[in-house]
Amino acid sequence: MEYSTGDIAAATSLQFFTYIYVSMTTFWVYDYACSLYEEWTFLLRSHWSKVKGLYIVTRYLPFLLIATNLYLSFIPNETPSKCRVLNNINSGFGILSIVVSECFFILRTYVLWNNNRILLAAMVSTFFTFVVASCSIAFATIVPATYATSTIPGITGCYQSSTSFQLFIPFFLLSVFELGLMMLTLIRAIQNWRMTNNRLYVVLLKHNIFFYACGLLFSVANIFTSLLLHYAYHAMLHDFQFIVLAILATRMHRHLWQMNRHAYSSRAIIHIPMTNMLPAEYMA
Fold first, then answer.
1. Rounded to whole angstroms, how far apart are CA atoms 98 and 214?
2. Across all residues in the chain, what is the average pLDDT?
3. Which distant-in-sequence residues (6+ apart) come within 8 Å of 67 by Cβ?
4. Cα radius of gyration rounded to whole Å, the chain
5. What's the pLDDT score for residue 283?
6. Pairwise CA distance, residues 150 & 241, whole Å
7. Distance of CA 149 to CAs 7, 11, 231, Å?
8. How distant, in Å, are the alpha carbons of 51, 54, 128, 281, 282 from that of 118?
9. What whole-number distance in Å separates Cα of residue 223 and Cα of residue 253?
10. 3-state SS of 111-142?
11. Which pTM value belongs to this model?
């Protein structure tokens, strides 16, 4: 039986999508295995707080995201309606993952600006507006979309057959928000670079800049893939961005907690209790 060029291209995109998710799963499992001791040290020895709850959600939500996508990629004989439901669930997990990851850095930026409540209100309201707009656009595009499976035997998975260029807008809004937070961090760093030699403060600045740079890089890549690629290719980096940013956010939080714990055990002059994430004490 001969297949059309479109059928072959769709099948190839599904295979590539599967390879991406297998690689992503391997990366997430490897990261978890390498940080298992640090992970459980933090979970068992840190005090319970709202930020610790935020950490647990951010850390383990990618597991649900990966499990959903692996199910989509490997379970054969999927129907378009089932594919739509699973993709909607996956989109919900992805949005929640990026929201909780960004919350860490909204708090950090708030701390860097000496607990400025006006700035916090501006960041939270802007982020909330962007999240609502992104959810509206994403689900307005995904829910009515048509899905298709490969006509070639042995190729599992499904893809969004109806092309929509609106999917780049949530990533554009995210890149604008992260660029704004990066500028706030850089302004604060320039203002204080000669006035503080607090190691935790310096680490906080470096973490923020690195996180925003990675977020911007992935957002720009997802904007281009959403606009230029078709079949399963256009969404191949969406969840990769969510998972990588979740890993970065939780790793950076653990690192800061460990530094603070070491400073406290060494009776350092400056003490910043990260377990409660009390903003005023970041700058103590």
1. 13
2. 79
3. none
4. 21
5. 37
6. 26
7. 10, 8, 10
8. 21, 23, 15, 18, 18
9. 28
10. HHCCCCHHHHHHHHHHHHHHHHHHHHHHHHHH
11. 0.82
